[in-house]
Write a structure and sequence with these properties.
Blueprint (H helix, E strand, L loop, with lengths): L2 H8 L3 H9 L6 H11 L17 H7 L4 H8 L3 H10 L9 H9 L3 H9 L2 H21 L13 H10 L3 H31 L3 H35 L3 H14 L8 H4 L3 H5 L6 E3 L10 E3 L1 H17 L1 H14 L5 H10 L2 E4 L13 H14 L12 H8 L5 H21 L6 H10 L3 E5 L4 H8 L11 E4 L13 H10 L6 E5 L2 H10 L2 E5 L3 H10 L4 E2 L2 H15 L1
Parallel strand pairs: 3-4, 3-6, 4-5, 6-7, 7-8
Antiparallel strand pairs: 1-2
Helix pairs in contact: 1-2, 5-6, 7-8, 9-10, 9-12, 10-11, 11-12, 11-16, 13-16, 13-17, 16-17, 18-27, 19-21, 20-21, 21-23, 22-27
Length: 563
């Protein structure tokens, strides 16, 4: 492109282009955008990278071809509000996603926008004003014997809150967390100091003196970095519902991982859609209500960096997160789960409780009918006899003759088959079976329920999985061989020609775990509730996942990688 051609394309004089090229004149923001469009490049590609370290946020905006009114209009802000961000680094609590939006339009990372905001003279002055106030707060509340925490009535707290343009109650909550942290560091330093003075050996005393120095340095770093950390936090602080969703996604990511829908997160779809995109990624090609979301690396870092502060600000969310922590505690990580399925050649599945729930509506009536049958057969019922139908059969099997047990078995099988015809797959089950059927695994259902009931249930899934791919090993002829006896698992592996060391049993009960353990196959427990997880842990099961959906996520990722 000649100089004349470029000048004509942007509606400028040739001399203007020559001045730009010579570096004696610099284009205004609108002209930068015109030049970039004419040359087929990004506006920022016209900038001199050598001066990057000296740029301010205003410089970055201009170099991207934006005037204040242009960028503020795209962001839905008044020019005055946007100018305040460039000048003061202050934004409204409602605009917690503003910095990521600016980063996206200016073609840089969120961290780079934060770096440039931090260079503004007004921001630097604010941080300088906050430092002595913070020292005064910590000097007051970390005195020996002081058990108080900063309150919103404290004059220093109110002064700090005013500088950050945030309510004093928020500052008090955050400073309470930091006060507790500094007290802990002071206690550790005091412990080291005692050993430094009175240690039994010279080496102990020398090591303790190093400990004193290390704790002193940590205290100094904590206090000196706090003004900047607060400044950054107030530009990205998530509202309660958004933090709850991020915390949930972070906990999922540390276990089996995988994206979740709004329904699975129990979060309105509009809340997830408004999450800052650098924290939470929305998977494309789905309707908003069914769209899946997963946390990004930046989201994980945000969760780690600010969790204690959010815990102080949102106690109800803290309770939710702690409950989720218990539920996910000790579950297999994604990488380990992938390794297990990659190495496996056979996957066995339990039935009731994993694939479906048989007696959701009539459990009590079925149990009552079986009790009447048992009484008519003169089978003694102990006070501790389980109330679930299969558990009742397991308890009575040694109390009657084979003919009586077979009759009870047949009656139970008729109830199971009738219930299975109405049973729906539990969440994620159809996807799990579909993904597994695409793999090379040998598969079978191993259950203490009647084979006919399993087959009746699988007729619902005919489009999902070929019945020939999924073997069925139902309740044994001799009910004494039910789980936790390894008979069913051993029979399935033998019939499928499987190596037991490369066989996985997916189940949800202690009986499943004990049967797998006795048969010498791997067990992965699906513990979808804290109660189920506790039972499996107490039985000795250490390999668990939190949901079928977690398994689906890992298997789907394995297949995408294979393609």
């Amino acid at each position: 492109m000649s100089v004349s051609e470029l000048a004509v394309s942007i509606g400028a004089a040739k001399e203007e282009i020559l001045l730009y090229e010579a570096g004696t004149r610099y284009p205004e923001a609108p002209r930068i955008k015109q030049l970039a469009e004419a040359l087929g490049i990004a506006p920022l590609d016209l900038a001199d990278p050598g001066g990057k370290d000296d740029w301010t946020l205003a410089d970055l905006r201009r170099l991207n071809g934006y005037r204040v009114r242009d960028l503020s209009g795209e962001l839905g802000l008044s020019p005055r509000t946007y100018s305040r961000l460039e000048r003061d680094g202050v934004i409204s609590q409602r605009r917690f996603a503003l910095v990521p939006q600016i980063a996206d339009r200016l073609g840089v990372s969120v961290a780079e926008v934060e770096r440039l905001i931090g260079k503004a003279p007004v921001v630097q002055q604010r941080l300088s004003s906050v430092r002595p106030l913070l020292h005064a707060v910590f000097d007051s509340y970390t005195q020996a014997g002081c058990l108080k925490i900063p309150s919103s009535d404290d004059s220093n707290v109110r002064a700090i809150a005013s500088l950050y343009a945030r309510p004093a109650a928020i500052l008090a909550a955050l400073l309470g967390q930091e006060t507790a942290r500094i007290r802990d560091l002071l206690r550790r330093r005091a412990s080291f100091a005692v050993t430094a003075d009175f240690g039994a050996t010279a080496d102990e005393q020398a090591d303790a003196r190093k400990g004193v120095e290390a704790q002193t340095a940590r205290i100094q770093r904590t206090i000196s970095s706090l003004p900047q950390r607060l400044d950054t936090f107030f530009r990205c602080m998530l509202p309660s519902e958004h933090w709850r969703a991020l915390a949930h996604l972070s906990l999922v990511a540390t276990t089996v991982g995988g994206p979740l829908t709004p329904a699975q997160l129990k979060t309105p779809a509009d809340i997830l859609a408004s999450m800052p995109p650098h924290l939470v990624t929305a998977l494309p090609d789905t309707a908003q209500d069914a769209r899946e979301y997963e946390i990004s690396e930046d989201g994980i870092q945000h969760h780690v960096a600010y969790r204690s502060w959010y815990d102080a600000l949102y106690p109800s969310v803290r309770t939710f997160v702690q409950t989720r922590d218990i539920r996910t505690s000790g579950h297999l990580r994604r990488s380990e789960l992938r390794q297990r399925f990659t190495a496996a050649e056979t996957v066995l599945l339990s039935f009731d409780g994993l694939l479906c729930r048989l007696f959701t509506a009539n459990l009590q009536s079925v149990s009552d009918d079986l009790v009447q049958v048992a009484q008519s057969l003169q089978l003694p019922l102990a006070s501790q006899t389980p109330t679930d139908p299969v558990g009742m059969l397991r308890a009575l099997v040694r109390q009657g003759t084979p003919s009586k047990i077979r009759r009870l078995d047949r009656i139970l099988a008729s109830y199971e088959t009738e219930a299975a015809q109405r049973a729906e797959p539990l969440p994620g089950v159809s996807q799990l079976l579909r993904l597994m059927s695409r793999g090379d695994w040998r598969m079978a259902v191993v259950t203490d329920h009647a084979s006919g009931a399993v087959e009746a249930f699988l007729t619902h899934l005919a489009p999902v999985i070929d019945a020939d791919r999924l073997g069925v090993f139902g309740r044994p002829v001799d009910p004494r061989m039910m789980k936790p006896h390894p008979h069913g698992v051993a029979l399935a592996t033998r019939a499928l020609g499987s190596d037991r060391s490369r066989t996985i049993l997916l189940g949800e009960s202690v009986a499943d775990f004990l049967a797998a353990q006795a048969a010498g196959v791997q067990f992965i427990g699906v513990a979808s509730t804290p109660h189920r997880l506790r039972l499996l842990r107490e039985a000795g099961a250490t390999s668990t996942v939190g949901s079928v959906q977690g398994l689906v996520s890992v298997l789907a990722q394995m297949q995408r990688t294979a393609l």
